[in-house]
Amino acid sequence: MMALASTTSLSLPAGSAYAQSVAEQSYHLPSAPLDETLLQIAKQSGLLISYGPSLVKSLQSAPVEGNFTGPDAIRQALRKTGLELVPTPGGQWTLRTVTAPTSETSKAVTYAELPLISVAATADSGGTGFVVENSATFTRGNTPLSETPKSVSVVDAAVIQSQSAQTLTDILRNASGVVTRTGPYGVPTYAIRGYVGNAPVMSDGLSSYGSAASPATLTPTIAIASVEVIKGPAAILAADAPPGGVINVIKKAPQAVPFHEIQFAYGSHNYNQVAFDSTGAIDEDKKLRYRFVISGDKASENAMGYDGGRHFYIAPTLQWKDSTTDLTIGYAHTVTRDPFPQYTVGYAKGGYVEGYIDYPLSNRDDHFSMTSDELTAKLEQKIDDHLTFVSKNGYTMNTQGQSGSAAVSTISKTNALTLMGFKSSANYYTVNSQNYVRLKFDVGTAKSTTLVGVDYSYMHYAQYDLPSVPMTTIPNIFGTFNVPPVTSPLSYSSSGQAQRVGNFLQEQWNYDKLNVLASIRRDNYLSRAYIVGRTPNGGTHQSAYSPSLGVMYQLTPEIAPYVNWNKGFVPANTRVYGGDFLAPMQSEQYEAGMKFSLLDDKLQLTTSLYHIDYTNQSIADPLHRGYFIPTGGAVSRGAEIELKGQVLPGLNVIAQYAYNNYVQDYAPTTKVNLPHHTGSIWTTYNFRTPALQGFGVGGGLFLTSGQAVGSSGNYHIPGQTETDLALFYKHEKYSLNLSLKNAFNHKLYSSSTSSAFIPMGPERTLMLTGTYDF
């Protein structure tokens, strides 16, 4: 069962919602897939409508052009579909076939009960509760996940808000196969399916190509509609991405129906946040729309005593959308300052300092900072009923800085610790452009969608570093010590640019129960770098073809097996000592899985098995600093399971489990610093008794198995479980969420390649979040 709920129907009193739905509004909707048209009408009119997705599958709506009430607009769309709109006893609406239903059919109508979340989270989730029907990323279109022959994890705004997630790392705990690695300067990287090559974080399908930390990583959660993780090589989307996959942050878009939300939060370590989200139509025809998001937060310190983080974000967006043109212009300004994260250190004899260290192991002011400005322009121009031109463009100016002292040794017998000072600044300028035509046509009962296009990316950077590396030794880390800040001036050390041009062809073909997705892409990659003290080189030019093929067959309305094969490449920017650039790294994935739609489409289950090969991998040359040597490669095998949706009335769940076995061909006995097993489960329950109306509870477990730290085998962190709890209350325009993370205050250790730096998860923390919708 699918429920379409506009923000108005949830945020206004019943009488106002009724007035909104019966008031005439202007509609300019072309013929389109019926479920898409119904969603547009529901959002614009404030009408609440529930129906089974199987009822409208493969149906096209009639055009809706003119002034109509909400119900009349839907009736216009239903012309010649064999369906009709009927009211339910509860004052909502549903669909049925024109033939009068039996009493048993009427009794069978069920509805998905949404979690207790705010209006904005409901409107932008793109589905019902924790269930998301479509993916906007992998196929470059609004394709149903049930018809996509690939593993795609989607975490929507409903999940994000119910967990009081504050960062992208918090969100990605709900996606199978993703492991976070926190760096000493607060910049996280993400390993997907065992590959640690820093999975790119895209923003609405555009990448901040080449920068150390993507601005999308720091997008505040109030601005996020959903986060998608595309598993395996994704060359058709991200070209030279690592073989594990890519992450795409989908930001909230302008809406025709107006709503406004104020959000506040207060938590442990004197954390404060205030944010505002507003959207609506500017003109009477609702063709010109806006979205405005602003968010600011700060904390006095983190759990380890480093000076607290501070973040500011502002993003205005304008959209013009009519029956043929969809043009969106957006700007985002991000300022962030993150302290050194919580971590512990290993002993030279083996083992490590257990538990949370509650004081800085360097200077309190050590931090990572970033200022970013992003300008985007997206155009979708319908040329005729079959042909559409799409252009997505982005420009990013990004300045990043790091300053501090990090441990480069383990703790000696006398408890001494050696630190290396680090300070740098880098400027990145990035241009991205995606341009393609989309051709849709039918041949009998078969449907074809063809994309032909070109992607272009350009990045220029300039790096400034310390002329020499300061070293400091703390005599006894358990005694009194003082580490001075790194204050030496920076000097220019390197610069470079990279250019990527990719031509691609993609074909999506649907016939009866069969779905096929095939693509081929050719990329040309050019790069040039200048490093102070080295002889300038002529740069590198590398190219590769990346084909892919996926097939899915709908065995029953509830079960669909799929298989896919994907290839990808990563250009080599490293050189061998005294020689040329290394060969590009090649990847190849084979995947098979099953997708299940259960309980009248209120519950989704996805299973997958995969095998990924990676060749031409390189490692640092131990004899010549700054150079690399080629090795064989790596193989990653694993299995994943994801479950999300409504299990029982009022009980929503999102859960995942992943097994990964990553083996390096060149050193099969070398320890891999990733867990074999990861998993999570998060549930929310809405109380149904009148006395507890509006209250709900949530709870979840986040688990990882034990794993090695470093390559020696002397350091191992155990398996661990984090328990999170939440209490919700929602009444008309107000909502409150009291969340408790790591409720039992377990010692939580994170993945690390170095025994000198073992990052840790949060101690027990409390957060109160409130929203007011108007």
Automatic annotation (TrEMBL):
GO terms for biological process: siderophore transport. Pfam families: Plug, TonB_dep_Rec_b-barrel. It is found in: Cell outer membrane. One of its GO terms (molecular function) is siderophore uptake transmembrane transporter activity. Transmembrane segments: none annotated. Keywords: Cell outer membrane, Ion transport, Iron, Iron transport, Membrane, Receptor, Signal, TonB box, Transmembrane, Transmembrane beta strand, Transport. It is a multi-pass membrane protein. Residues 1-19 form the signal peptide. The keyword Membrane applies. Residues 47-98 form the Secretin/TonB short N-terminal domain. One of its GO terms (cellular component) is cell outer membrane. InterPro entries: Beta-barrel_TonB (IPR000531), Beta-barrel_TonB_sf (IPR036942), Plug_dom (IPR012910), Plug_dom_sf (IPR037066), Secretin/TonB_short_N (IPR011662), TonB-dep_rcpt-like (IPR039426), TonB_sidphr_rcpt (IPR010105). CDD domains: ligand_gated_channel (cd01347). Belongs to the TonB-dependent receptor family. This is TonB-dependent siderophore receptor. It comes from Herbaspirillum rubrisubalbicans Os34.
